[in-house]
């Protein structure tokens, strides 16, 4: 069958401020946790920013945004997902007043997007907690961050609310379970962090997300606010009922965040987890009322599926922060992420059946080591592997739409090469646009169109009609 995508489907690409803006100390910006994470999540943070942190320069989008947005427009983007650097707006996170130079930068970005008719999709917090909030409050373990975040979000809504319709509260909010510094701004090392403090931080983020969702609707009823999850379907390794149960329990870890965002209260299985871990959350009556402010849509990233087993000796997977047992039926990427296009269709059906909220795929893509070559005198990357990966996944997206799933759009991750969040490398490339910068920091920062650039341009122009089974 020919894949049919709905009229008005939002095709585009996705990025994050800390991974591509650079300009970490320009125009009054404060430090974020990313500025002391030179190796991503694979090594402890440093005391201060170090020169080997590629994120300090990123790909210099801060100074090249007009050029890059023009390239997105050339591909035909209908939407562009980017995050606003919290410490660019509130340098310490707990400031009383915002940094005007930071606000003005995003005005200029929105000007360019409007010029090209591209719908902005803005992530309010994308692994970019201001460093001061990590140092002074241990991040989201402290209830005061709810108010700081609300002040920040209100500033964004009041400044950009007439220009930005689609908002995401926290990127991959469920990642806090596995990467508490990156996703929760928590400086206490993971192995020393108590379950009490971890789950309290989760609660604070969920309350903040719900409170900001209510605020957006109060300020402008036309705003659409979504949560953002890591989607990772978990299959039982065998038909053994104990493996099926183990897979179900692993899925519950991720479902809990979506259930609260979509249903407005904690599910019973999550409350059982708290009881069994001896956790008593500090929940106020106001918190319970706040949580009832549910999202308008559910967005998610999808890169990998895993298996789960009740057997304690099964090897865990490599390359993704969520663990899991490798699936013996699937191939893996160079970074050990197992490639499962059908899993995306499964997630779409699963989420739609569970929550009955419009869905939005806001991250999906293949990280690979690309080689810049000359073809007919033009520098490019012949990335047929990326084209094949995306074609297979998008075909399954079309199948899910045919299944009846309500899907708003699809934005590929790292539509232009950027610094990896997990390993802080540039050699792990996702983009349609090659950026000449290397893991050692060398390079011209010049942009080159990959073969996938024209392929994706054709997919958008045909609204998915060019995809093949």
UniProtKB/TrEMBL annotation:
One of its GO terms (molecular function) is beta-glucosidase activity. The keyword Transmembrane helix does not apply. This is Glycoside hydrolase family 1 protein. SUPFAM superfamilies: (Trans)glycosidases. Belongs to the glycosyl hydrolase 1 family. The active site is at 363 (nucleophile). Keywords: Glycosidase, Hydrolase. One of its GO terms (cellular component) is cytosol. GO terms for biological process: carbohydrate catabolic process. The keyword Hydrolase applies.
């Amino acid at each position: 069958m020919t894949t049919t995508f709905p009229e008005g489907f939002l095709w585009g690409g996705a990025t994050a401020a800390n991974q591509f803006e650079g300009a970490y100390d320009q125009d009054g910006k404060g430090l974020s946790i990313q500025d002391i994470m030179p190796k991503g999540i694979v090594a402890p943070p440093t005391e201060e920013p170090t020169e080997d942190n590629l994120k300090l320069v990123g790909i210099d989008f801060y100074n090249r945004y007009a050029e890059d947005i023009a390239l997105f427009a050339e591909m035909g983007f209908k939407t562009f997902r980017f995050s606003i650097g919290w410490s660019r707006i509130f340098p310490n996170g707990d400031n009383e007043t915002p940094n005007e130079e930071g606000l003005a930068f995003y005005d200029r970005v929105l000007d360019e997007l409007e010029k090209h008719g591209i719908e902005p999709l803005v992530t309010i917090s994308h692994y970019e907690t201001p460093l001061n909030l990590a140092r002074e409050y241990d991040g989201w373990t402290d209830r005061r961050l709810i108010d700081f975040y609300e002040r920040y979000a209100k500033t964004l809504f009041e400044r950009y609310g007439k220009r930005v319709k689609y908002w995401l509260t926290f990127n991959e909010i469920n990642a806090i379970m596995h990467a508490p510094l990156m996703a929760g701004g928590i400086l206490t090392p993971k192995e020393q962090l108590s379950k009490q403090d971890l789950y309290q931080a989760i609660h604070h983020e969920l309350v903040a997300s719900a409170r900001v969702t209510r605020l957006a609707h109060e300020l402008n009823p036309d705003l659409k606010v979504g949560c953002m999850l890591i989607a990772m379907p978990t299959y039982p390794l065998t038909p053994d009922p104990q493996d099926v149960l183990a897979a179900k329990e692993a899925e519950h870890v991720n479902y809990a965040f979506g259930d609260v965002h979509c249903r407005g209260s904690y599910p019973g299985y999550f409350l059982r987890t708290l009881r069994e871990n001896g956790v008593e959350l500090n929940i106020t009556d106001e918190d319970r009322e706040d949580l009832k402010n549910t999202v308008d849509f559910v967005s998610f990233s999808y890169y990998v599926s895993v298996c789960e087993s009740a057997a304690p000796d099964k090897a865990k997977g490599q390359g993704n922060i969520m663990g899991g047992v490798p699936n013996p039926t699937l191939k893996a990427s160079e970074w050990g992420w197992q490639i499962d296009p059908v899993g995306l269709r499964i997630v779409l059906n699963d989420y739609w059946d569970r929550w009955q909220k419009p869905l939005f795929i806001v991250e999906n893509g293949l990280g690979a080591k690309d080689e810049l070559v000359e073809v007919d005198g033009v520098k490019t990357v012949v990335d047929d592997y990326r084209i094949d990966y995306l074609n297979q996944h998008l075909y399954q997206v079309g199948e899910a739409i045919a299944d009846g799933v309500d899907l708003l759009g699809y934005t590929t991750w790292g539509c232009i090469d950027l610094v990896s969040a997990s390993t802080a490398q540039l050699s792990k490339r996702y983009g349609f646009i090659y950026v000449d910068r290397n893991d050692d920091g060398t390079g011209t920062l010049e942009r080159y169109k990959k073969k996938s650039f024209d392929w994706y341009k054709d997919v958008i122009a045909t609204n998915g009609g060019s995809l093949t089974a």
